[in-house]
Amino acid sequence: DIQMTQSPSSLSASVGDRVTITCRASQSISNYLNWYQQKPGKAPKLLIFGASSLQSGVPSRFSGRGSGTDFSLTISNLQPEDFATYYCQQTYRTPPYTFGQGTKLEI
Amino acid sequence: EVQLVESGGGLVNPGGSLRLSCAASESIFSHAWLTWVRQAPGKGLEWVGRIKSKAAGGAIDYAAPVKGRFTISRDDSLDTMYLQMNSLKTEDAAIYYCTWDHYYGDSSNYYVSDYWGQGTLVTVSS
Question: Among A24, B6, B18, B93, which residue's beta carbon has the most beta carbons within 10 A?
Answer without folding.
Answer: B6
